[in-house]
Amino acid sequence: MVGNQAVSAESPHKSKAAGTGDRMKISTKGRYALRLMYELACHADEGYLNIRAIAQRQQISEKYLEQIIAMLSRGGCVISSRGAQGGYRLAKPPEAYTVGMILRLTEGCLAPVPCMQEGCAPCERAECCPTQFVWEALDNAISGVIDRITLADIVAHARGEAQQQ
Fold first, then answer.
1. Cα–Cα dist 53/49, whole Å
2. What is residue 114's predicted lDDT score, i.e. its pLDDT?
3. Domains parsed from the chain with CATH numbers
């Protein structure tokens, strides 16, 4: 923190107003993808759901959901069917999808800082970086949460069936 400005994780020299950094945020795309998958999980035993019904229940733009469902379809998460009774359904049971899988598909990398991204060139300061352990711990904590919670857990929680973990 510099004065009342937060220092960006990307550059120690640039500052941004607190809360406006571009890291550690899940976009509407990721949040809406989870809500869309939640709807499909809730109604998994009913067959195919159309986007319009999901959009109405979740109060999300139908056009935006169409973009998101295309990503989920390409990622093998959903199966589509055309026709009057067509729509979308989960490709696997709700237990097979973690929040992490869905977010990484829609958001890409969720690492808190660039040097923690998979496939990233090794940081030239890795050997002497006093804060690297902080970023590793944060990355592990985030992954530990989002890779443990499944769509089935979200459905159970929404229905009041969640058990304390």
1. 7
2. 80
3. 26-165 (1.10.10.10)
